[in-house]
Write a structure and sequence with these properties.
Layout lengths: L20 E7 L8 H16 L3 E8 H4 L3 H6 L4 E6 L1 H13 L6 E6 L13 E2 L2 E4 L5 E12 L5 E6 L2 E5 H10 L3 H9 L1 H14 L4 E7 L3 E12 L3 E3 L2 E2 L11 E7 L3 H11 L10 E6 L1 E5 L5 E5 L2 E20 L33
Parallel strand pairs: 1-2, 1-3, 3-4, 4-18
Antiparallel strand pairs: 4-6, 5-6, 7-8, 7-18, 9-11, 9-17, 10-11, 10-16, 11-14, 12-13, 14-15, 16-18, 17-18
Length: 359
C-alpha cells in the first residue's frame, strides 16, 4: 500500500524548515501482537497531514513486502525512513540504514509496539501514539555497535540505539519475545504487568555466570548477574536507570550487577521501577566508550534493543554521530510540528570504577 504527495522536488540537503523530502514509512502490522494495524489505521491520516508540508513523496510499505527494499529505497533517493511498529521494527530499520548509510539519510519512528522504549521519555503523540517524525527535529546521534561470535562461529555486527545487555535483562527479553500462555494473555491486555511477569519469572530461574570485562577504563573478572550497556536510560516499561545520557555525547552508560541472589535481583527490579540503580552494594556504574566481554567460551543471550541472539566474545563500542535520527522534544514541550527548544548541556557526573570493589 502506498500514497504519494507531490509537493515539489526532493533535495539531499541539511534538513530544515521548508525542505521537501522523499519519505518512506515501513509499517509492521504484526507488532504488538497484531494490534499495530488497528493503531496505524486510527492515526494514518494525521501522520500524512503532519508530513504533508515536508514530504514531496510519501510511501507506506508493509514490512512483509519491504524486508529487502530498504537498500533500494535509499538508492532511489529516499532521505527519511520511518519505522512504524515496535522497538524491533526500529532495530530492523537501523541495521539496514547502517549498512547502506549515506549523508542526509535520517531515521524516524511511529510507536505501534508494546513498550516503545525508543520513544521514551514520551513527549510527542498523535492520538496517544508516540511519534518521532518531524525532520526538523533530526540530528546526528551516536549508535551502539556490537561485534560478536554467533552459534555457527561467524563474526556478526549489529547496531543499537537504546541499549544492549547480557544476563537477567537479556533472558527476560527472550521470554517476553517467546511468551508462555500466561505472558501471552498479559501482553495483549496489560503490558506493564507482562513486563513485570517476565522479569520476575526470569529472576526466579536465574543463575550467575563468569565473565571477564575490559573497557577503556578498567578490567575485572568474576561472576555477574547482569551487564547493561545503555544509550538510553529507559530499558523496558517503567524500568529506568539513573544515568544521565545524551544521544550525542559519545558515551555508553555501563551498569553492572555482580553475583546476586534472587532476593537481591528483586530489589534491583524494584529500584529500577523508581529510576534508582547506582550507589548500592554489588552495583557499579560508569561512562565508557568501549567494552570487551569475554564470555569464557559460553554462548550467552545478548539483547540489543529488545532483540536477543546467542553470542560469545562480545565487543561493544560507540559510533559518535553515526546516523541522523529524529529526536524527542524537551519533556515539557507539546507536539506542534515546529522546532523545539534547545538541548541542555550534559551534567558532569562522577564515574564509578567497577574495579574498586569492597573487600
Amino acid at each position: 500500500m502506498s500514497s504519494k504527495l507531490q509537493n515539489g522536488p526532493s533535495r539531499l540537503l541539511p534538513h530544515g524548515q521548508g525542505e521537501m523530502l522523499k519519505v518512506a514509512i515501513l509499517l509492521n502490522r504484526l507488532a504488538n501482537q497484531g494490534r499495530a494495524a488497528q493503531k496505524w489505521n486510527a492515526i494514518a491520516p494525521l501522520v500524512r497531514q503532519q508530513l504533508a508540508d515536508k514530504a514531496s513523496t510519501l510511501e507506506v510499505l508493509d514490512t512483509s513486502e519491504a524486508l529487502n527494499q530498504v537498500p533500494l529505497l535509499i538508492e532511489s533517493g529516499y532521505q527519511m525512513l520511518i519505522a512504524a511498529g515496535g522497538d524491533g521494527s526500529v532495530h530492523f530499520l537501523l541495521q539496514e540504514m547502517m549498512k547502506h548509510r549515506r549523508e542526509g539519510l535520517l531515521l524516524g519512528a511511529v510507536g505501534l509496539g508494546s513498550s516503545n522504549d525508543f520513544h521514551k521519555p514520551f513527549t510527542q503523540f498523535i492520538r496517544g501514539i508516540p511519534v518521532r517524525i518531524d525532520p526538523v527535529q533530526a540530528k546526528k546521534q551516536d549508535v551502539g555497535c556490537m561485534r560478536y561470535t554467533d552459534e555457527a562461529g561467524t563474526t556478526q555486527t549489529r547496531y543499537f540505539l537504546i541499549n544492549a545487555s547480557i544476563g537477567v535483562t537479556a533472558n527476560a527479553n527472550w521470554l517476553f519475545n517467546h511468551p508462555d500462555a500466561v505472558l501471552r494473555r498479559l501482553k495483549g491486555r496489560f503490558v506493564p504487568l507482562a513486563i513485570l511477569y517476565a522479569a520476575i519469572k526470569t529472576i526466579l530461574r536465574h543463575r550467575n555466570f563468569k565473565l571477564r570485562l575490559e573497557s577503556d577504563q578498567f578490567c575485572c573478572f568474576g561472576r555477574f548477574a547482569n551487564v547493561a550497556m545503555l544509550k538510553s536510560a529507559h530499558v523496558s516499561g517503567s524500568l529506568t536507570y539513573d544515568q544521565h545520557l545524551l544521544s550525542d555525547d559519545g558515551l555508553l552508560g555501563l551498569n553492572i550487577c555482580e553475583e546476586m541472589s534472587r532476593s537481591q535481583l528483586l530489589r534491583v527490579l524494584a529500584d529500577l521501577s523508581r529510576s534508582v540503580f547506582s550507589g548500592k552494594a554489588g552495583r557499579f556504574s560508569a561512562y565508557i566508550r568501549q567494552l570487551h566481554i569475554d564470555t569464557m567460551g559460553q554462548q550467552l543471550p545478548l539483547e540489543m534493543d529488545g532483540e536477543v541472539v546467542l553470542a560469545s566474545d562480545i565487543h561493544c563500542s560507540i559510533l559518535p554521530g553515526a546516523l541522523s535520527v529524529v529526536q524527542t522534544l524537551p519533556k515539557s514541550a507539546e507536539w506542534t510540528g515546529c522546532e523545539g527548544g534547545k538541548r541542555g548541556e550534559k551534567s558532569l557526573l562522577t564515574q564509578y570504577d567497577p574495579v574498586a570493589k569492597k573487600a
